[in-house]
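Morning!

This is the sequence you dropped in the shared folder:
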Amino acid sequence: MKTVSLIMSAYNEENTVGIVLGNVHKLDYINEIVVVDNGSTDSTYDILLDSQKKDDRIKLFRIKNNNGLGCGIRLAIENTTGEIIVRQDADLEYDPKELINLIEIIDNDLADVVYGSRMLVRKAHKVHYYFSYLANIIITEYSNIVTNLFLSDVETAAKAFDGNILRMIKWKSKSFEIENELTQKLNHYKCTFYEIPYSYYGRRFDEGKKIRIWDGFRAIYFISYYAMWSIFCSTKKFPFKRDIK
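The structure's back. Tokens below.
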């Protein structure tokens, strides 16, 4: 198997991040685990330090003040070395046991990007907020119109990428719009996308869920923004030679 880097951005996840990293610890196909404490004000960082003592694959970084999910993801990407980069959230909404299903498609040279869709149920889908579901449908459909891709879940956090490609692109997003920037720019550079079913165990807002209505409006704005970027970008050719899949 190609070398695999797992990336994680954690913000105030003291109740879950230790459990998640404990589950990741059991995955022997992960070569390095790049974790960013994104300005946590609870005991998340202490738990991460403890996890690092138990697993020498963990590379730990800390952002003093939280500036959004995108900042954590960008820092994590910059510090990876793996041929494949796979993302895992610090909560319990996504099961690390299913990461292999994302990775194997890139490992077999079928794709540059793989999304784990919550809309294509694999094992379980926790019945969740209808308006969150509706917002995701609207955002995904708008993204598909702009990119001419046929994805069912652009906002999923379950994603895997060709590591060389991800490190070559300059990422700018600070917050949740990183999801839209990833889709728009990777599509702009003619990356091959795959999508697989992925189980989802969603949290309630009182359990720590951080996405809000305002983030949906931001997603629509940034899809439009990066669509304009794609139109006016000077090149669609990827900055290094690679085989077309």
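Headline: Helices lie at 17-25, 44-54, 69-78, 99-107, 130-147, 163-168, 178-188, 213-232.

More detail when I'm at my desk.
O.
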